[in-house]
Specification:
The protein is built from ten helices and nine strands. By secondary structure, it is α/β, with parallel strands linked by helices. The chain has two domains: about 5-75, no CATH class; about 85-275, Rossmann fold (3-Layer(aba) Sandwich), CATH 3.40.50. It has a seven-stranded parallel beta sheet, sandwiched between helices. The termini are far apart.
Length: about 290
């Protein structure tokens, strides 16, 4: 075959290649002749997209384009970054807090009421015993415990949560962290506390109470004293647990005994101290 014939064939092949590219049937080194654009693999990090899943623009293009929809702010991958940032902020803010006790109670507890005064006494007594006080940072019993801690010159921590009806952190908090996600906030309540003191409260308080019991029961935390204050309020719950629930065999006697009931602030603090004196510290979730 002559050189001229070879050149003609090369030109012919080049023409075919140009046509293939123009028709969208050939794509550089990654695709073969006969493939269509919908068959191309689109790689975005570890994810591969094909066919109708292929996006109309690249990630960089969407990042650098200042116009267009902002739906990406509400997608699950972006939420992962927000969740990560909440853990990082929480860990950073509380890492050097020292010994602490989480105090729970109703946001509806009225100032000056019996349980408000009890919460204030609890906050003060914990600080006097060398503990920081951690609450949900809201009003009611949380505010009272924070007030007692602050007035006693201690660390008064509020872990707020984004709610449609929440008014923000109470004025007695001197270290506050706000969260979007309940589960990130709950981790902080457990990770940085040696125990729980639970004052009269509603669904939110009950949620924290039974989550704490479950963590101890399943040995997710090694030692975690849980004290309920207010025998008039919690007495019925104890009767139900020790009667109906225990008789049904859905819990063991040991499970029920994880809870302590008292009206004495000093006894509640003593139970927190006793756990530390036994030489067993809380195993915090990593």
């Amino acid at each position: 075959m002559s050189d001229e014939t070879l050149d003609d064939k090369a030109v012919s092949d080049e023409t075919v290649d140009d046509k293939a590219v123009d028709d969208g049937t050939l794509d550089d080194d990654t695709q073969t002749a006969g493939a269509t654009e919908r068959d191309y693999d689109y790689h975005t990090g570890p994810v591969t997209l094909r066919g109708s899943r292929r996006p109309a623009s690249t990630t960089d293009q969407r990042l650098l384009d200042s116009h267009g929809p902002s739906d990406w702010l509400h997608t699950d991958p972006w939420r992962v970054m927000r969740i990560q940032s909440e853990f990082v902020e929480g860990f950073g803010a509380l890492a050097e807090l020292g010994p602490a006790v989480s105090v729970f109670g109703s946001a509806r507890t009225r100032p000056g009421s019996e349980y408000y005064q009890l919460a204030e006494q609890v906050g003060r007594a914990l600080v006097d015993a060398g503990y920081a006080v951690i609450t949900g940072g809201g009003p009611g019993a949380m505010e009272a415990a924070n007030k007692g801690a602050r007035d006693a010159g201690g660390a008064s921590v509020g872990l707020g949560i984004e709610l449609p009806f929440e008014q923000g952190l109470n004025e007695h908090v001197n270290l506050g962290v706000n969260f979007r996600y309940f589960f990130a906030r709950k981790t902080m309540f457990v990770k940085y506390a040696q125990g729980f003191i639970v004052l009269p409260g509603g669904f939110g308080t009950l949620d924290e109470l039974f989550e704490a019991v479950t963590l101890v029961q399943t040995q997710k935390v090694t030692s975690f004293p849980i004290v309920l204050m207010g025998s008039d309020y919690w007495g019925g719950l104890f009767d139900w647990l020790r009667g109906t629930v225990l008789d049904a065999g859905t819990v063991s006697r040991r499970d029920v005994d994880l809870l302590h009931l008292t009206d004495d602030v000093h006894e509640a603090v003593r139970l927190m101290q006793a756990s530390e004196e036994e030489g067993v510290t809380a195993k915090r979730p990593e």
